[in-house]
Write a structure and sequence with these properties.
By secondary structure, this protein is mainly α. It has helices at 9-33, 48-93.
Length: 99
């Protein structure tokens, strides 16, 4: 037997709130913690001189990916605001009114 699933403006607002209060702060913390993964000399040993440049480049790539993820989540939050507003209007317009 299939389960009835209904989308509500309240559910959309909850998703927005979770993105704002949980996902964005977690991504921002992650970006700040990348610096704590630095490996000082002679952390990579003899090959360190060759590897440290690539490692630093990889850290920069991760920072850029996280920035892109943050930008994407911010766009989702903005889009969800429009979706929520439209959905709320649809909810109100679909309500039966007895006169």
């Amino acid at each position: 037997m299939a389960q009835d699933i209904h989308v509500t403006s309240t559910a959309i607002a909850s998703i927005q709130r979770n993105l704002t209060e949980k996902v964005l702060p977690a991504l921002r913390r992650l970006k700040q913690e990348i610096g704590s993964t630095d490996v000082g000399f002679p952390g990579f040993g003899t090959l360190g001189l060759v590897m440290i440049g690539q490692y630093s480049h990889t850290q920069d790539d991760v920072r850029r990916y996280i920035d892109e993820a943050i930008d994407t989540v911010l766009e989702w939050i903005k889009a969800l605001e429009t979706i929520k507003t439209n959905w709320l209007k649809a909810e109100l317009n679909s309500t039966v009114v007895y006169r």
